Amino acid sequence: MLANLRDYMADSPVLFTLSRKIIELNFVKEKRLLRSILDLESPKITLDIGCGTGEFAPLFARHDYTGIDISPRYIEYAAARRPKGKFRVMDATNLEFADNSFDCVLIMGVLHHLGDDEVEKVLAEAKRVTRPGGTISITEDAHIDDLKNWFVRLVQKFDKGDGIRTPAEYMKIFGRLFRVTGQRQFRSGGSIYFSVVATK
What we know:
- This protein is α/β, with parallel strands linked by helices.
- The protein is 36% helix and 26% strand.
- The chain has a single domain, classed as Rossmann fold (3-Layer(aba) Sandwich), CATH 3.40.50.
- It is built from seven helices and seven strands.
- Strands 3-2-1-4-5-7-6 form a seven-stranded mixed sheet, sandwiched between helices.
- The radius of gyration is 16 Å and the shape is globular.
């Protein structure tokens, strides 16, 4: 019953956005994190992989921002409501951009929907399109027992992503591709996140 409701809400950009805003307290912590680790004031060329409905696009108003997502519905919704930025339907395992195209690459809440092989493909593509010395910010739903409460357990139980990993499991994958320069863990409403900043 709840799984059917989850799938129904996920299929609707409006309901998905509303439910995530409620569950994650309007993404206040996620947005604070991005402001603290990325230079949002200087002109940069930024790619948001798995941008969904474009929730984080307004943060990048001074950047040349491109958001991609596999869902045409989400991209259509984002393009209609976010006046700044470009939005494209695209498979993150096969990015349609040239090597070294972006100063910043953002991946938020995407990888826990994928198996290890797909995660490695997405990360390899993210690395390929990032310029030398560029920044890659990855924030993913994580299993961190010290941060769990009943609400988090409920949210994670019904998350559409079957690949929620521990920080150690994420780092085993990330460390093969990137030089990780920072790590954070935090709870945002009903979600727990493990976040890394990495360079190419």
